[in-house]
Amino acid sequence: MDALRISLQVLLVLTSGLLIPLVLLHKGKGGGLSDMFGGGVSSSIGSSGVAERNLNRLTVIIAVVWAVVIVLLGLIQRVSN
After folding, report:
1. What predicted TM-score, i.e. pTM, was given to this entire model?
2. DSSP character string of the chain
3. How does it sit in the membrane (predicted)?
């Protein structure tokens, strides 16, 4: 059980580390803090629809894995006590 817990904790750290830059790479939708710092005036010349869609998919997949790992770690903690 310890090997499973350690591997899930390593996976949690990896997915957490990946999730942060993936969320930060998303384009601002406006109306929030991005407008306050000049993000609302940026043009959409450099953005690609396919790249944005793939970034969304990858972010959702990593977020789902992250959530499943947290639930599994909680279940392991409950069973071991």
Report:
1. 0.75
2. -HHHHHHHHHHHHHHHHHHHHHHHTSPP-SSSHHHHTTGGG--SSS--HHHHHHHHHHHHHHHHHHHHHHHHHHHHHHHH-
3. Multi-pass membrane protein
